[in-house]
Amino acid sequence: SQQGEEDPQALSIQEGENATMNCSYKTSINNLQWYRQNSGRGLVHLILIRSNEREKHSGRLRVTLDTSKKSSSLLITASRAADTASYFCATVLYGNNRLAFGKGNQVVVIP
Amino acid sequence: DGGITQSPKYLFRKEGQNVTLSCEQNLNHDAMYWYRQDPGQGLRLIYYSQIVNDFQKGDIAEGYSVSREKKESFPLTVTSAQKNPTAFYLCATEGVANEKLFFGSGTQLSVL
After folding, report:
1. I need a surface site. Which of B3, B13, B21, B72 has the fewest CB within 10 A?
2. Do B104 and A40 touch (CB under 8 A)?
């Protein structure tokens, strides 16, 4: 079942700008993960944030989690053309050992 | 994508035909998954296996079958009962439970 829903669905930005994507979910989660997918390829894990964490960083990535609003955001700072991809959030529900993926955000970084 | 090999990259199915998608891994992971991805959509779980000789249906298992005879291999058969098989199929493995999935590079299945 699909739980994570990303917003906005498509984003086009200039190289060097920041890109922000949001993800909302409906029920209590164990953790939330973000993945990147280049066109025609498999997904690559970017970052995991646990339900008791509020913010996490990895390189140019910053993820926040607000469990009271059931939402997460992914910020990519100083974007590069190579960041052009689709970005998916995925949640692990409490009592369920499977990931539920959102529909994805397409990000285009214009050189 | 390293460590997980999906083949073929592109596959064409004739009406009424069964086709098998291969997924092989050398990561020594117990859990393996098959997902289907349609354009503009997220991933939907077809089948998963947490250990050799055991597998469970996911959310959209109808028209598909799997086997898990070896730890390294988790082939997916798209049967003739699957009336709308055109999609991008992704295989994944999981090391630590619920922590991170590793994906193969996918197989694009189309109907002739």
Report:
1. B3
2. no
Cα dist from A26 to A2, A102, B40, B44, whole Å = 10, 12, 21, 17
Cα gap A43→A76, rounded to integer Å: 17
A45 pLDDT band (50/70/90 cuts)? very high
Kindly report the nearest CA distance between residue A111 and chain B, in angstroms. 24
Check CB contact under 8 Å for B42 and A88. Answer: yes
Summarised one tens digit per residue, pLDDT across range B45-64 is 999 999 999 999 999 999 99
Radius of gyration of chain A (CA): 13
Residue A39 CB neighbour total at 10 angstroms:
8
Residue A104: which of B42, B88, B104 has the nearest Cβ?
B42
Q: Are A5 and A103 in contact (CB under 8 A)?
A: yes
